[in-house]
Amino acid sequence: MQVSEDASAALRKCVHCGFCLATCPTYQVLGDELDSPRGRLYLMKQVFEGKAPTATTQQHLDRCLTCRACETTCPSGVDYHVVLDAGRAAVDAQVERPLWVRLKLWVLRELLPQRALFGAVVRLGRVFGWLLPGSLRRQLSVMPAQAGIQSLEGTGSLLSQGGRVLLLQGCVQPALRPNINAATTRVLARLGFDAIEVPGAGCCGALRHHLDEHEDALDDARLVIDEWWPHIFAGAKAIVVTASGCGAHVADYGRLLRDDPDYADKAQRVSELLTDLADLIEPEAARLFASARAAPAQPIAFQSPCTLQHGLRIRGTVERVLEAAGYQLTPVSDAHLCCGSAGTYSILQPELSRRLRDDKLAALEAGKPAAIATANIGCQTHLAGGTTTPVHHWIELIEQRLV
After folding, report:
1. Contacts of 346-349 spanning 24+ positions with Cβ under 8 A
2. Fewest CB within 10 A of the end CB: N or C in the chain?
C-alpha cells in the first residue's frame, strides 16, 4: 500500500519504548495496548504492509482522541498524528462503516463547518432548551457578544502601536460563545492592535480533516487563505486564533498544502504569521494589569487544551498572563490528560468522552475554584456540560480585570 513519505518517516522513528502509554488517555481508561499510540502504530504498520484491516482495527483508531500527548512524551519525536491521518484513511477505504454511522459523520461534516446553518440550529436548540437535558442546556448557554468586533467592511482605523491583526471567526464559536472574539478585540485594543475579522474566512478545515475528509478540509483551508491573503499582502502583522484547536490546524497549513503549487507559499506564510493570543499579551502584561493587580481576584483553575500544550507546544504562557492579572491558579493534577472533547469525539465516542470529562472536572474542581478557564471552544462547551462551575475562555477573565 502506498503511504505518504511523512507517515512512513514518522512510523520508522518509533522504537516501541512504551513511554507514550503513560500519557495516553484512552490507554489509561481502557488498559488495552491496542488503544495506546504504540498499539495503534503497530496496527497501522500491518495495514500499510498489506494486512486487511477489520472493524476492530477501525474501532481502535476511532477511539484515539488525537490529543497528541504521546508526541510530547515520545523521546524519538514520532509525529503520531501524521501516521494516524494516513492510517485512518487507509482503514476507512477498506472497511465500510454501518449506514447509521456514515449518516452521522455526513451530518457532522456538513452541519458544523457551515456557520450560518449551525447558528440556526443552535438558536433553535435554545428556544426549546427546556426540552433538553441539563448538560446540553449548559453547553448551549451563551454570553452575548458586546460591541467590539470590527469587520473589514467597517471603517476602523489602525491604532498607534501594534497594527492590524487578523482574527479567525471559525465555524461553531460565533454561535456558541460570540463574546470570546469580542473580548479579544477589546483587550488587544488596549495594546494598540486593531483586530479584524474577515467575514468570508470560515471553518479552518480542522473539523473535516479529523473526520477523514482530507480533500474537503484542504478546500476549507484554501478558502481561508484566499480571504486572508489580500490583508496579509497589505501588511497584517499577525493571525490570532482564539480556539487552540483551530490554531493547531492553521499552524499545519504549510505542511498540509506544501505540494499545492498555487498555495504552498501562501500556506507557509499563514502558518508563520500565526501568533498565540497569550504571546501578544504577555510582553505587556505588567503595564496592562498595573491597576488590576491591586484588587483581589477569584481563584480559578486553568484547563490547558491538548491542542495548546501538545499541538502548538505552548505551555505556561496563558497561566502567566492570568497570574499577572491577579488570578490565583488552583493546582490541577494530570494536567496533560485530555478532557474528552477532541472536536467531534464527544459525539462519536460519548461514553469514553464522559469518563474523561468527569476525571478532568474532578481534577479541575479539587482546588475549589470559583471558575474554570480554558483556551478552546470545544473544551469549554464540553466541560460546561458536566458542571455548574462557570467555564470561560481565559480572555474573558482577562477582560474582566480591565474593566
Report:
1. 346/378, 346/382, 347/104, 347/108, 348/62, 348/104, 348/105, 348/108, 349/62, 349/63
2. C
Alpha helices in 161-239 (DSSP H): 173-176, 179-190, 206-210, 214-233
Range 215-230 burial, b when 16+ CB lie within 10 A, else e: ebbbebbbbbbebbbe
Contacts of 104 (CB under 8 A, 6+ apart): 347, 348
What is the C-alpha to C-alpha distance for residues 261 and 243, in angstroms, rounded to an integer?
Answer: 29
CA distance 130 to 139: 13
Q: How far apart are CA 200 and CA 224, in angstroms?
A: 7
H-assigned helices in 234-329: 244-250, 253-256, 264-273, 277-281, 285-288, 306, 317-324
Distance (Å, rounded) from C-alpha 93 to C-alpha 101? 15
Amino acid letter for position 165: V
Give the span between the Cα atoms of 126 and 142, in whole angstroms.
Answer: 9
pLDDT at 6: 80
CA nearest neighbour of 379 among 301, 270, 322, 320: 301
The yes-or-no verdict on residue 259 having pLDDT over 60 is yes
pLDDT digits (tens, 9 = 90+) for 314-370: 999 999 999 999 999 999 999 999 999 998 998 899 999 999 999 999 999 999 999
Nearest to 170 by CA among 125, 136, 218, 220: 220
Give which of 396, 322, 402, 335 is closest to 362, Cα–Cα.
Answer: 335
CA torsion through residues 193, 391, 312, 324, sign: positive
Nearest to 342 by CA among 302, 397, 381, 314: 381
Domains and CATH numbers, the chain: 5-92 (1.10.1060.10), 291-400 (3.40.50)
User: CA-to-CA distance for 267 and 217, rounded, in angstroms?
Assistant: 14
Q: pLDDT tens digits for 276-313?
A: 999 999 998 888 888 666 566 789 999 999 999 999 99
Strand partners, 321: none
Task: Round to whole Å and give the CA distance between 369 and 302.
Answer: 9
